[in-house]
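Ligand: adenosine-5'-triphosphate. Inputs:
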Amino acid sequence: MDNGHMHPSFARVIAQKEHLKKKLSSIKHKIGVYSAKGGVGKTTTAVNIAYSLAKLGHSVGLLDADIDCPNVTMFLGMESAKLDSVQPMRPIVHQGVKVLSTAMVVDEMKMPMIWRGPIITKMVWELLANSEWGDLDYLVIDLPPGTSDSPLTIMQLLGLDGFVIVTTPQKISAVNSIRSGIMAKRLGAPILGVVENMSSGEISKHTKAVADELGTDVLGSVKRDDIFNSCSDSGKVAVLEDREAADAYLGIVQNLLG
Ligand SMILES: Nc1ncnc2c1ncn2[C@@H]1O[C@H](COP(=O)(O)OP(=O)(O)OP(=O)(O)O)[C@@H](O)[C@H]1O
Ligand SMILES: [Mg+2]
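Predicted complex:
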């Protein structure tokens, strides 16, 4: 398109988009962790994948892109971590991972839960355009559930390299995961694989069906284990605390990188 004939208001929007793209170019890989279904373990997966990548020596960022319910800081015991009002917004380094969340910018408990499309778009835009990640090998993004405004906006703005889809062994979860995967593919982002969370041990046939349907692989499974509840309640990272969790996520991350 010839920007020379464009009204300045439109040209400004295009320029902002270019600015964002340039800004995010210091990040080698942007991986979204997603499922349309709530509560399947997206945040758990995003956090533990991020810390597993960091354990392997990569430089890693973790972006909490759940504007409505930003939970990452609680999972990391960082509720009191707030950004000062200086620009740009610098992620806070926590045990070797750069973390950024809207919960660091506003008081989570006072956050209006009724934000809709345009305002969410604006908030995500501001968060991304004003943050300074520096050079990163991986940015792991914890996405909100649903197939509506918030995840859509974030996917389109960030131009993700791909998605990890989280599912649980149940059929209902699989059906929703397929829905999530189809949506992500429609937006042009590849599916990097499927993680079965809250697994009983053996990968369920429903999880295998999700991978088949989306033309991808099951990266691995993580057992249903109280360690994840106790870790998220006490602000600890399971892969830094528990051998079995560390091994499960190491396998997932190795398959992801492979
Ligand atoms: N493998 C597991 N075993 C036992 N509990 C788990 C496991 N994975 C996650 N949980 C627990 O399940 C709850 C939901 O997990 P989490 O917040 O990661 O899900 P979510 O998909 O991000 O939810 P939301 O859709 O609300 O963002 C948390 O209390 C978490 O500790
Ligand atoms: Mg979550």
